[in-house]
Amino acid sequence: MVRLAGTISRIATCKVMVIGDLMLDTYTIGKAKRISPEAPVAVVQVMREESRPGGAGNVILNLVSLGAEVVAVGRLGPDSSGEFLRKSLMQEGVDVQGLFVQEDFATPLKNRVIAENQQIVRVDYEQVKPLPEALECQIIGSLPLLMSGISAIAISDYGKGFLSPKLLRAIIDQANLQHIPVITDPKGLDFYKYRGSTIIKPNLSEAYAAAGLLPDADLNHAAQKILQMTEAQTLMITRSESGISIFHRDGQRNDFPVHVREIKDVTGAGDTVLAMLTCAIANGLLIDEAAQLSNVAAGIAIERFGCARVTLSELARRLLEHDVVNKVFDEEHLFALKEALKGQCYTLIGLSGVNGMTSSIFSAIHRMAKTGHDLVIYLLDTNYDDDFVNLLAALHDVKFIILHSESLSSLCQAIHPSSIYAIVDKEFTQLQKASDLFKFSLV
Predict the structure, then answer these.
(1) Which residues are part of the catalytic machinery?
(2) What architecture (CATH level 2) is domain 7-310?
């Protein structure tokens, strides 16, 4: 497993574009207690119904949950489903200027009937329809303005006819012109239309099909064929419970296993990977780091039923199970910590490492942990000792560590700690506000 070395602390707010096939996911949820007398099928007594953006919309929702600003580009029909999608995305703070209405098109809708946490049937209302030339030209003409300030572009192709070869070519060429990385989740057998993408992200069966090889063929051979075909810098193949494999043009391959507690539903896991990958690349992470984060995010998603939104807070907490270095945050990376602590009850503790890890500090931390709140340590020292930080990070009771920061007060105003303490004379002293930490000579 790749050493993550605090990658979560390098995830900050970023502006990205998602372009692809939008659809509406609806869920009819109920109980099935008998078989129909009309046919050998279950009768579902409906308890509730839910609707949410699906397809590229699910990628968008995951990116929003990871703290990204999203510009959505897609096609809607002049119908209630399309209007619901637009309003739902607007409520999430998504820029919807790039959503275009096609008059002769019906917004795709997928209705999943659920009983006792089992999907019984899925009913699809959709049509694969090409873009009219006039609308295609309108979308292409809008791309330079829509791409303004964008750090990465995610192409989410569900094969519904929106992403025409001409539109794909315009997106990728314009992005390359502006040096914007493009991460493509492909569909179908023709990967040539995605040529020039920075990263291509098919699943295992899609990769073999696009390479024209049988599933028992050498995966390395399939990967090199795809890389040659698409001229992509990197190929990422998602392999379900086997994790993720990264292939480079020089023949190098890296495999990343997935860590899952319990697989409940793989629906939407590919969208989660695309969102996390796009967010990571937009923040300048290396592809191997991005792949590992994507693996962790997907692992969280498939432990839930339906299309799940993985938050930065959940991601941070799961990463702590694998690498304690992710506990440490500095001035530059407080955004990720704010996201990680949203909705959590925690206690902020100020202390100094001048005398190292003393027994009094260890005992005091252990006592405070009994309150049931997560403990966040703030280091007052500007010249902190690395060994001391590593010892603190190794403590199970310590959830996060903040290195000396001029933004401590504003951080606490944003995330509202349940209580604030300083270690004074070998004991904890409760404070009224974070700024009071600076009044103490801590031991």
Answers:
(1) 271
(2) 3-Layer(aba) Sandwich (3.40)
